C-alpha cells in the first residue's frame, strides 16, 4: 500500500495558525466549563497529530518556553518545511517527527512521552477508519490523566446537503490523470455543469450553489485537502465522542469560547430543549441539528475533574487580556465567532475599550476586583469572549515572559515575507499565542526589529521595493491592483498604519 493511504500527499496544505490549539486557550475553555485545567506554570508536554506545515506548533513553542512540543505528520514536505523554520529560529523545545499514526502505534517511530495536551486540527474526518483507530490508540497511550485533547472535524448534519456533490467531485477527480491540483481543477470544471443556472437542476438549495461557487474560487491546495482524500467523511459529534470515550476521554465543551454564551445563537425554546437532555453526546448532537453546524472544535479531558464555582472564580481572576490590534481598528459589528456573526454594543463597551487601549491588563483591573468571583459574570466578560473568539483580543494565564524564542521566530517569519506569502502570524511571548499580520506588516517588522529608529519613509520604501521585486500585487476591496502606482500607494498606506498604529501594540505584546 502507498504510504499516503488514500490521503492527498502531493500538494502542501496551506500554512495556518489556530489559536484554539493554544495551551492557555484550552485551559481557559476547561475553566469556563468548571473543569480543572493543566498547570502550565511548570514544565509540560504538548503533541500535535497531523501538524501540517508546523506553523501553529512553532508559534506556540516560541511563546510557551515552559512546554515541550512534538508534531507528527507523514508528509515529508510538511515536516521538511516545519523543521527548516524551527531550526532557523533555534526552537529547542520543538520536535517534528516524519511518521504516520500507524508508525507510532506499531513502534516504528521514536517513543513519545506522556502528554498534557494532544491536539488535532483538520485531521479526524479526512482519514480512514483504521487511522482514526490509530489516533484513539495514541490518545489512550500518550495522554496523561487530566490531560486535554482538542479535536476539530467536519460535522453532521451540517454537511448533509453537500455530501452527494462531494462524492461526485471525488469520483470524477479519481478518474482524472495528473497531480491533485490539476485533478481538482478538472473536477471543479465538471462540477460547474451542475450549477443550477446551467441547467444541472440538482437542487434549489443556496448551500449547494455556494459549495459549487467556492470550488472555482478557493485555494486549490486547501480544496484538494478538503475534498479529494479517499476517506473524507463528516461525522456526528456523538460518534466522535463515543470513539474518544474508548480512550477514557470526557467531553467538556467547545474551544469556541463564545459557546459559553448560548443566548447568542439559541433562542430560549431551543435552550430549553437542550437543557432537558442529560447525555452530553446527545445534547451536543441535537445542538448541531438546531445550528446545522458544519465544523466542530471539541475539547475533551481524560478524567475531567470538576471544580467548585469558588475555584473557578479564583482561576478566572488570574486571567489577563490584551488587544491584538490598535483599539481604533477593533471591529464590533458582524464579528465572525465560531457559530455566528455577532455585534457588540459600542456605547456600553466604550469605557472597557479605553482601559484596554492602555495596554494588557488583568480581568480584575478591567472589570473590577469582584467581577469574576461569582456567576453570572458581567456582560462585559461576554464581550471579551467575543473579541477573543474573533482574534481581536487574547485571554491568557499568568506567565513568566521570556521573549527570546518568540523574537527569533518572528525574525525568521518576517524574513520569509520577502520571498512568499505563506506566513501570516507572529508569536507573542506575552500571551503565548499568535497575532495575525498582513504581508506589508511582515516587511515592516523585518526592518524595525533590526533598526528600531528607522524613519517611516525609509520603511515604506523598503516594503515597496521588496514586494515589487517579487511582482507581488496587493488587493483593495477584493480586487487586485494592476498598476505599479496603485500598488506603491497601497503599500505605503499599509506600512504607515503598521508603523504608527500597529507597532505600539506589537511592542506591548512583546513581539519585537
Ligand atoms: C488538513 S491537514 C491539517 C494540518 C494542520 N493541523 C493545520 O491545521 O494546519 C492534515 C494533516 O494530517 C496529516 N496526516 C494525514 N494522515 C496522516 C497519517 N496517517 N499519519 C500522519 N499524518 C497524517 C497530513 O499530512 C496533513 O498534514
Brief overview, please?
With 512 residues, the protein is α/β, with parallel strands linked by helices.
Mind explaining what this structure looks like?
With 512 residues, the chain is α/β, with parallel strands linked by helices. The protein folds into four domains: 19-157 and 234-302, Rossmann fold (3-Layer(aba) Sandwich), CATH 3.40.50.150; 173-227, no CATH class; 319-396; 404-508, no CATH class. Helices cover 44% and strands 15% of the residues. The chain contains 20 helices and 16 strands. The protein has helices at 23-32, 55-63, 76-88, 101-105, 129-142, 163-174, 180-192, 206-217, 220-227, 237-245, 268-275, 280-291, 309-317, 346-357, 363-367, 379-389, 404-416, 439-450, 456-469, 484-508; strands spanning 44-49, 67-73, 94-98, 115-120, 143-154, 249-254, 295-302, 320-323, 335-337, 340-342, 361-362, 393-396, 425-428, 433-436, 475-476, 479-480. A seven-stranded mixed sheet has the order 3-2-1-4-5-7-6, with helices on both faces. The chain is globular, with a radius of gyration of 23 Å. The mean pLDDT is 92. Bound molecules: S-adenosylmethionine (SAM). S-adenosylmethionine binds at residues 5, 7, 13, 16, 18, 50-52, 72-75, 78, 100-101, 121-123, 127, 131, 225.
Looking at CATH, the homologous superfamily of the largest domain is: Vaccinia Virus protein VP39
Average residue-wise pLDDT: 92
Shape: globular
Biggest β-sheet strands, sense, barrel: 7 strands, mixed
Q: Give the strand line-up of the largest sheet.
A: 3-2-1-4-5-7-6
Enumerate the distinct ligands: S-adenosylmethionine
Uncertain runs: none
Tally of helical runs: 20
